[in-house]
User: Fold these one by one.
Assistant:
Number 1:
Amino acid sequence: MGNFLYFCAMVRFYTEDIKFNLPQKQIVKRWLQSIAFSEGKKVGELSIIFCSDNYLLQINRQYLQHDYYTDIITFDYTEGNVIGGDLFISIDTVRANAEEYKQRFDQELRRVMAHGVLHLCGYSDTTDKERKAMRAAEDKALALSG
């Protein structure tokens, strides 16, 4: 498993319009790679951009023509079995959702990051059946994080 996980894997973290520092970045990178590996994929270039609600709302309006807040928007650049993309994550919404669902912030943030990676692995969440499969895959991914 070792060599497979590190195939040209470039996972990078950025912020836009907020101050946020993700703890344990190397552990998170390996965990995200393990999610892809568990789905038979490799990680190519993956950028995770932490931002505010307003920043993500503007992306949602501009690129998806949606006028509402969300926790994550995933731009997919996957080619074959090598996943890649940009995951824009609203720290504001992750915090609010953690409170609403009575979860720790770090747990909710991991779920959202896993959600984005799973989209890149081919999961969708448009129908009830797809949402159920996505939730099961998120739970499996969270179990990989320990």
Number 2:
Amino acid sequence: MKEDKLIPYISKNKIEKAIEKLSEELNTQYKNNNVILVSILKGSFIFTADLVRKLDFNFVIDFVRLSSYQNLKESMGTVTLSKDIESDIAGKHVLIVEEILDSGLTLDFLMKRFCANSPLSVKICVLLDKKHKRKVPMQADFVGIEIEDKFVVGYGLDFQEKYRNLSEIYYLET
């Protein structure tokens, strides 16, 4: 079996700077607001944990688990919901936190689902934005780093459940 080749791509320092920038934007946007922050599992759990430590507005954290990759490097084109949020979002501000926006399928699915429940607002915060991979029109409201069309792992991102534990982001050559 061939070993995966990991090429360094985004340093821990660059990730930390992106999170600092995002937290400043979010703290300004949501000052004096109560927010339901929804983290998409599994990939965004590390990003979410680092981000929420820098937020100074009131929020409740919730989680949703969605998938469109099924252990592949390309989206399958359909989104599977395996864990829904527990919070009532009607009349509330919702902030979706995702580690990467690429095809847009997952976030499009989630946005439509949430908007059907009458929130005050729904915004998206992503660490990484891979604009070249969009399959549906989708734009994040808060973006940490724009990246090239590379399959990336580390810092919560995985390939077949491997590499989430890496503190930096690598692109994967298989």
